[in-house]
Amino acid sequence: MKNRRREPAQPCPLCQGKTRVTGARKPAASIIERYYVCMDADCNHHFKTLTSVVGTVVPAKNGNNLDLFEGSDD
Ligand SMILES: [Zn+2]
């Protein structure tokens, strides 16, 4: 069996309970918005998170790299 690396689970910010992803959308090319619901029946909090690309860790081999934040210092 393949040992797949998983994202850290996002707990409920109110009760720290387990959550389930109910949906996601992509408002921009480098941003993912995820919708969650808390699995604790007494809480049932619905919330959303943003994941965004903030930089390069290892440059792309093909030279096609990010220019995030360029031109924002004017
Ligand atoms: Zn909760």
Automatic annotation (TrEMBL):
<feature type="domain" description="Zinc finger Ogr/Delta-type">
    <location>
        <begin position="12"/>
        <end position="56"/>
    </location>
</feature>
<dbReference type="InterPro" id="IPR007684">
    <property type="entry name" value="Znf_Ogr/Delta"/>
</dbReference>
<dbReference type="Pfam" id="PF04606">
    <property type="entry name" value="Ogr_Delta"/>
</dbReference>
<protein>
    <recommendedName>
        <fullName>Zinc finger Ogr/Delta-type domain-containing protein</fullName>
    </recommendedName>
</protein>
